[in-house]
Amino acid sequence: MSRDLGSVFQTGISDATLKVNPYLLGTGWDVQFPADQSRPRGTEVEIWHIALDGPIGSSAVWFRNNRKLGYINQGWANEWDPSQPVLLGQTDEITFCWNVAFAAGPYNKTSNILPEITLWLRQPQEW
After folding, report:
1. Are β-strands 13-14 and 28-33 bridged in parallel, bridged antiparallel, or unpaired?
2. What share of the chain is helix, strand, coil (3-state, %, to 5)?
3. CB 15 within 8 A of CB 61
4. Does residue 116 lie within any of the structural domains?
5. From edge to edge, which strands make up the β-sheet containing 67-72?
6. 127 lies in some domain
7. Tell me, what CATH number does 47's domain have?
8. How confident is the model over 53-110, as pLDDT tens digits?
9. Is 63 a member of any domain?
10. What pLDDT does 126 receive?
11. Per-residue pLDDT reduced to its tens digit, 97-120
12. Is 42 domain-assigned?
């Protein structure tokens, strides 16, 4: 049995800061979970669930250490509940990129949504 470690939450920022968005370099939305902010130091964790929300009509791609890990066809009001959790090592970084251009606030739930991601983490199962 694995132990639930709770969740980490991040909101979107313009790709003008990160410059990693393959859809809209320099202008799209990104959500990044640096290794030092997304888990306890010196431990491996599993992502066992993801809740995400972003601009309506969008899709997204996500990366582990700048390598594509998967695609999210519906980048708003969605979740991911895998049969095989994603194992993260001590230095692994997770980034999500949306195919909708960055927009300035104020943000609302219909036309101008700031992406939000919650990663649910647990200790890896030992067999």
Report:
1. antiparallel
2. 5, 45, 50
3. no
4. yes
5. 13-14, 28-33, 94-101, 60-64, 67-72
6. no
7. 2.60.120
8. 999 889 999 999 999 999 999 999 999 988 889 999 888 999 999 998 888 888 887 7
9. yes
10. 67
11. 999 888 888 888 777 889 999 999
12. yes
Taking alpha carbons only, the member of 68, 56, 58, 53 closest to residue 20 is 68
Amino acid at 121: L
Q: 3 is written with which tokens? A: 């132990």
SS3 127: coil
Which residues lie across from 97 on neighbouring strands? 30, 61
Containing structural domain, residue 94: 4-122
Give every CB contact of residue 12 below 8 A, 6+ residues apart in sequence.
29, 30, 31, 54, 98, 114, 115, 116
The answer to whether the CB of 13 falls within 8 A of the CB of 44 is: no
Distance separating alpha carbons of residues 47 and 22, to the nearest angstrom: 23
**26-49 tens-digit pLDDT:** 989 999 999 887 666 557 889 999
Domain count, the chain: 1
